[in-house]
Amino acid sequence: MRILIIIITFIWVGMVFGISFVEAPLKFRAPNITLPLGLGIGKIVFGALNKIEIILAIGLPISIWFGNFPVRSNYFYGLVFLVLFIQSVWLIPILNERADMIIAGQEIPKSYHHITFIILEMVKITLLLVAGIRFLNLTE
Cα–Cα distance between 136 and 140 in angstroms, integer? Predict the structure, then answer.
């Protein structure tokens, strides 16, 4: 089970890094990509990523439980789940609503939601890396 936990963890890190910090900013540099078009693509991509993250977040505790690992070895994952919960229930719906407004041509005021999402993505990647490294160093 330890190897499965490590695989899930580092696949998750790679997906979040690749989408949030590589794909998302680069798509707006592509020729002919307008803000509304980029936001529409982003909604689809981040919606898919969020669903995959929820699946991974379900798989990790099951793997940890079946591996009979002590609680102290997985509290970083609890923090990751908290970040994912905040993003899924509160932040992504707000960002989707704002994107829909922009796509519809409405002017919207600046907000802190996008930067909050970026910060939470950095926190999530850091927590996943720490948790994954801890499991790499765990002796069976």
Answer: 10
